[in-house]
Design brief:
Shape: globular
Helix content: 25-40%
Order of helices and strands: HEHEHEHEEHEHEHEHEEEHEEHEEHE
Radius of gyration: 20 Å
Number of helices: 11
Strand content: 15-25%
Number of strands: 16
Distance between the termini: 22 Å
Length: 375
């Protein structure tokens, strides 16, 4: 996932209070109308290259391909813009404007820092749908946001890691430090999953301060392995941490897509996004003239997030333990951030009988769970 803002807690709380809905409407220069299926064009702005075969942009592209197949669209109805750095406003604007010039009726921006540029261009083009991933803005007209409860899947991956470790030292390559709630919430959920099956294990975090850097991700994994960690988890884009684990004869939990093909002797499972669940719905609504500026926030119950199939590298009994926890998450009898929770400084950050809201998990979580240590 991409960068989250501290403003997200307030913004997400607001849209939750409204049931994730916005008001319909039209801009002064146009309005959103139904588009015949054979005429619709879909633009997608990618931070990386889906051709890498694994990771963040690949996962989004898999969702787009699923949408295309389900709705029966042609290849030329999908306009992909790849390797667009989300911190580069000029390149972001150019990529989106090219999608507009090529006739796109709906444009998906998949990375956090595309948000402000999409908001600006949405105002200028009210008849085009702008749908932004991992942020929080919604203009109530033609710009919405889509995101989800990936922390649910991270908890399950933590179970796999906690049952596999032999050293009770689990490494975690993190893109950002605890000022980024999205990353921190994922680390905490993973660590909670670890503790649920292995109270003696600790999770050691190395921060790269970048979302996509093969070299830095590999170096962070190597440093954790040198410490004695025998499972390497990650919140970063590439397969480098999993490759490092395999090279050292250890194990790992990837992210965004099933990384078993990349590291077949190491990989256990990965939290994954089924982006096609949202993409199919959004494009179908655009075709039928039913799209509204409603934010989407899905979880495991909606099939929006999951974990990849467990590999043969997992410890005996892992599937049963994960299946039991997954069933409770889906039926709502278990919430990851519920009950008394202590941080790694001994402070009680959540009281018994209370549940931390999604808004706080994704936008206001600046502490680490009790079994987490940053190196």
């Amino acid at each position: 996932m991409r960068k989250a803002s501290k403003l997200l807690a307030i913004a997400l709380a607001a849209v939750m209070a409204l049931g994730f809905t916005g008001c319909g409407g039209s801009g002064s220069d146009g309005e959103i109308k139904a588009v015949p299926k054979d005429k619709i064009k879909v633009g997608v702005i990618h931070i990386g290259n889906p051709a890498d075969g694994a990771g963040y942009s690949y996962a989004h592209d898999q969702g787009i391909q699923q949408m295309k197949t389900k709705l029966g669209l042609r290849d030329d109805q999908i306009i992909n813009k790849i390797n667009i750095p989300d911190e580069d406003v000029a390149k972001t604007r150019t990529a989106i404007e090219e999608c507009i010039e090529e006739g796109c009726n709906i444009i998906f921006g998949t990375s956090f820092n595309y948000m402000n540029t999409m908001e600006e261009l949405a105002k200028d083009h009210p008849s085009i749908i702008f749908s932004h991933g991992t942020g929080y803005k919604n203009n109530g007209v033609n710009l919405n946001n889509y995101f989800g409860r990936i922390y649910q899947a991270r908890y399950l991956a933590g179970i796999a890691a906690g049952m596999r470790t032999e050293s009770n030292m689990i490494g975690y390559v993190a893109a950002m430090d605890k000022s980024n709630s999205e990353v921190t919430g994922g680390i905490n959920a993973f660590a909670m999953g670890v503790k649920s099956v292995n109270p003696d294990a600790k999770v050691y975090v190395k921060v790269t301060n970048t979302w996509f850097d093969v070299t830095l991700e590999g170096q962070a994994a190597e440093a954790l392995l040198d410490m004695g960690c025998d499972v390497i988890a990650q919140h970063c884009d590439t397969t480098a941490p999993q490759l490092a684990a395999e090279k050292r004869g250890k194990w790992g939990c990837g992210y965004n897509s099933d990384m078993t093909p990349a590291a077949p002797k190491a990989h256990l499972t990965a939290p994954i996004w089924n982006w096609g669940v949202y993409y199919t719905t959004a494009v179908e609504q655009a075709i039928n003239g039913e799209w509204k500026p409603e934010n989407y926030f899905g979880g495991m119950a909606e099939g929006f997030i999951d974990i990849s199939p467990l590999s043969e590298n997992c410890a005996e009994g892992t599937q049963e333990a994960i299946d039991a926890a997954k069933e409770k998450i889906i039926n709502g009898t278990f919430k990851v951030f519920e009950g008394e929770i202590k941080d790694n400084e001994g402070n009680i950050v959540n009281k018994a009988g209370e549940v931390i809201s999604d808004a706080d998990i994704t936008g206001n979580m600046n502490w680490y769970f009790e079994n987490v240590e940053v190196k």
